[in-house]
Amino acid sequence: MNNPQTDNFPEGPSFRRALNARYRSASLWQMVFLSALLIAILSLMTLLYTVADGAFGYVAYEYKHDPTEFSSTPLNELGKDELLSILQSNLSAGAFKKLDNEKPMASRSHADLYSLFLERLLQIDTKQIWSMTDSFLHAAEIRAEATHKYPDAQLEFRSWLTPQFLSSPMSSRAEFAGVRTAILGSLWLVGIAILFALPVGTGAAIYLQEYASKNWLTKIIQTNINNLAGVPSIVYGMLGLAIFVRLLEPLTSGAAFGVIDSNGRTVLSAGLTMGMLVLPLIIINAQEAIKAVPDSLRQASFGVGATRWQTVWHHVLPNALPGILTGSILALSRALGETAPLIVVGASTFISVDPSGPFSKFTALPIQIYQWTTRAQPEFHAIAAASIIVLLILLLSLNAAAILLRNRFQRKY
Amino acid sequence: MNPPFDLTKKPRIGESLIQSLLFLAGVLSIFTTLAIVYVLGKEAWLFFGSPEVTFAKFFGGTKWQPGIGQFGIWPLVTSTLVTSSIAMLVSLPLGLSAALFLSEYASPKTRSALKPILEILAGIPTVVYGYFALLFMTPLLQNIFGEQVQVYNMASAGIVMGIMILPLISSMSEDALSAVPRSLREAAYAMGATKFETSLQIVLPAALSGVGAAFIIGISRAVGETMIVAVAAGAGPNFTFNPFQAAETMTGHIARISGGDLSYNSIDYNSLFAIALMLFLVTLVLNLISQRVVERFREKYE
Predict the structure, then answer these.
(1) Mutate to test the interface with B, among A343, A389, A390 (most CBs of B within 10 A)
(2) I need a surface site. Which of A385, B154, B170, B195 has the fewest CB within 10 A?
């Protein structure tokens, strides 16, 4: 019997060979695909390690002045009152008055005064810093190098991320700079952004899901929201600069409310810009959450005579709320890490005063990271790394909160 | 006797008030778009209207120095092209491979262990990637390629940007791949195809529109990305295609100039809006194309 189809079918050893070749290439490509994922994981690990590598390590530093010039008691035994009198007698009257105006000297803590003493009088001078890897692997060489190159310097293993780093304001010296002003600025910023975007975004989502009929206007709005989510963040920055900083300056600077000596580059302008930026994300997330509420709930509510708004308010919203909040937290973490629009709307790069209200000047964590990363001196890279750790921890806790919220309130219908 | 109870009457003014408030929230997004177009358009109009600037200079010149009347956009465009191309060269193969592995090979357990890692990668702020590019990738490139790599260079910014875009490409492609119905795969297996042959010759072509959309969105993201290039690619327009040289991109230029003391109504200020308008139009067109690709070329399975 002659069957034209099976006659062409490879048989015997050549068939085996072809099959084996196909199996080999299949498993080879599986390795290739897997290695792409491994590269991604490796990149993440390397990124995190690079940050940690910069934030800890040996530091060689010396003081420009000898502690004995100021006091005969050893440094670590100086009391608060002694420090205060040393500062008062050695600082120029003007400098002391300026510090006193920022925060009364008498009410400052011991640690605060001590760091002022180090900063202003002893004038710490960082000679060289080493990365964490070097510090662990080549500790002996580093010690030899330091004693050879800087005989007067002290060498110590330093973590640039300290409680003091979190609680001190900006400083022009990396050794004393902190991120308190930046953290507070970031909190103000995302607070204002969410106050604006959450109600408006949820409202828009309710309109689109519950009220809007299927017509051209709804379609335009929907397409438009999807497109807005893809607009580069720096373009939002330009929008904020033109609208909030310049056009609405009387409002955003607080001039209309009696605030004097301020321009439009306030935390309010930046917060509203951020709000515009995260608005499409919040709308899209809220729409998904509202979509997930089953129609039977709405029909039951209409069935007992409730109006549309009563149905939305008492039945749809409570059921969609966990989803909406999860989406908002994710939008918040986006706003927290966003840098480009803040540069454009004019975050202050050097500011040591905490933001006190919506009309104050501000800086934010990502802005400080940007500033310090682009400085040439390595000690600024070290504090940039430390502030990256602070930012990543903040983001991680926000995301953990979102996941908890989702798991806690997730309902299945 | 009471008047008859009228069911057609609308007793609540609040209802319609609330509805109009919600409607306002909905159309606010349209106003946002209009505001972007108006603001960018107006300032860009002022820029092109000023006597020093002509379209020929803008699109023909290879020098961008508004201070001395040089308004050629090309140096900013070429560096944007170079960094974005490098980013796509890194992120498309890696992202697509990762998506194929996650969707076709990985067990549900492996998938749920690996996906969060990609999500973490996607959630890291771009300024942190900038730090990574400047302080890890650039020294690495300098070790490999030697002296020719400048401290600020487009290659390291592009590669790190590729890593940043990878999760986006992989998650969008994976969605497209897993939307391909099981029956197609099973038909291929029944014909004796290996898993690899099925993935590459059956599943991938069926999901091609989704992968294409991911690719286009990736380009749009790369073109609009600011912080990585602002930190690592260089501060100063430079007309070059050499990835190891420093050159400022469109976004990087806006960030640097607007970060300084910028006086309103100067030609510098207006020029930023002209660049931003180009950026907005390019990303808008890319996003629209990607949406069309998904809608138009989606294979429909019953």
Answers:
(1) A343
(2) B195
- Closest CA relative to residue B261, chosen from A366, A349, A337: A349
pLDDT in tens, A132-169: 888 888 888 888 888 888 877 778 888 888 888 888 87
- Same domain as A286, residue A185: yes
| A273 and A153 belong to one structural domain | no
Judge whether B161 and B129 are in contact, CB under 8 Å.
yes
pLDDT at B2 over 60: no
Residues found in chain B: 302
| Residues in chain A closer than 8 A to B28 (CB atoms) | 200, 204, 279
Within this chain, do residues A195 and A74 fall inside the same structural domain, yes or no? Answer: no
CA distance A237 to A191: 18
Chains A, B: CB pairs < 8 Å? 245
Whole-angstrom Cα distance, residue A121 to residue A87?
8
Task: Kindly report the backbone phi and psi dihedral angles of residue A292, in degrees, each rounded to the nearest multiple of 5, phi listed first.
Answer: -75, -15
- The CATH homologous superfamily for domain B64-297 is MetI-like (1.10.3720.10)
pLDDT at residue number A341: 93
Does A150 map to a domain? yes
Domain ranges of chain B: 64-297
State phi, psi for A170 to the nearest 5 degrees.
-60, 155
Lowest mean pLDDT among B3-12, B32-41, B273-282: B3-12
Residue A356: its pLDDT value, please? 78
- In B159-178, the residues whose Cβ lies within 8 Å of chain A are 163, 166-167, 170
- ipTM of this predicted complex? 0.90
**Nearest Cα residue in chain A from B289:** A227
Compute the distance between CA of residue A413 and CA of residue A408 in angstroms, rounded to an integer. 15
Helix axes B74-100, B250-259, angle to 10 degrees: 120
Total number of domains constituting chain A = 2
Question: pLDDT at residue A1 above 50?
Answer: no
* Mean predicted confidence (pLDDT) in B96-114: 92
Q: At what angle do helices A216-228 and A267-291 cross, to 10 degrees?
A: 120
Q: Assess if residue A17 is contained within a domain.
A: no
Does A35 contact B97 at a Cβ distance shorter than 8 Å?
A: yes
Residue A45 lies in a domain: no
Q: Is residue A52 part of a domain?
A: no
Among A336, A162, A119, CA closest to B123? A336
Q: CA quadruple A271, A276, A277, A282: dihedral positive or negative?
A: positive
A133 and A217 share a domain? no
CA neighbours closer than 13 Å in the CB half-sphere of residue B268: 15
Cβ-Cβ contacts under 8 Å, B214 against chain A: none
CA-to-CA separations, B86 to A52, B262, B283, in angstroms, rounded = 27, 32, 18
The CATH number linked to A194 is 1.10.3720.10
Q: Does A138 touch chain B (CB under 8 A)?
A: no
